[in-house]
Amino acid sequence: MSQSISQSTTDKVRWTAADLELFPENGNRYEIIEGELLVTRAPDWRHQKASTRISTALDTWSLSTGLGEAVQAPGLVFTAADNVIPDVVWVSRERLAALLDEAGHLTGAPELVVEVLSPGSENERRDRELKLKLYSERGVQEYWIIDWQRQQVEVYRRSQALLRLVNTLFSPDRLLSPLLPGFSYPVSQLFQ
Fold it and tell me: In this structure, are residues 118 and 94 in contact, taking their beta carbons and an 8 Å threshold?
């Protein structure tokens, strides 16, 4: 009897996408990575400002080139146990239709994912470790982490089947990407 009790107390609850339907609409953001539930509060003003600015820049570039689409806070459902809400994604026109399910969620890796860090060690762990690993495993080609507190952008690119840090950009630098020919955005504008 004591064996089953000690086992049940050490078993970890594995959350799924179906469980997310049960949570209230209360301003919190609920995500699941490898069955682990991650709850964050609504992002603050500086977070949303940086997210809106990069999304707008990517959207403007996309409209002018016709090469893809940028969206803020889409549902990204890789599996029932891996369901996240990145701050911004960019998907090429060629891949978009194949990635959308009937509910309008992305079910595969967009080419580019952007996360804006929120303050706190748990938030940093989520974006720098858990999401980096998830996006790497699922085939994201490029991952940008915008850190408005340090006023920098970390750029990860796929190399040898993994996302690897290739550059840390600061205010005088410009965001460029081989995925986005001709795209150029001053890092300083993210933090003005």
Answer: no
Q: Measured between alpha carbons, how far is 68 from 63 in angstroms, rounded to an integer?
A: 8
Decide if 158 contacts 141 (C-beta within 8 A). Answer: yes
Q: What is the pTM of this model?
A: 0.85
Q: How far apart are CA 31 and CA 66, in angstroms?
A: 31
Tell me the C-alpha to C-alpha distance, in Å, between residue 72 and each of 8, 35, 57.
40, 24, 12
Phi, psi (5° rounding) for residue 40?
A: -130, 155
For residue 96, what pLDDT is reported?
94
CA distance 188 to 170: 7
Domains defined for the chain, CATH in brackets: 43-190 (3.90.1570.10)
- Sign of the torsion angle spanned by Cα atoms 124, 129, 135, 139: positive
The residue among 67, 75, 64 whose CA lies nearest residue 92 is: 67
Handedness of CA 26, 102, 85, 107 (dihedral sign): positive
Residue 11 is predicted with a pLDDT of: 66
Which residue's entry shows tokens 């804006």? 116
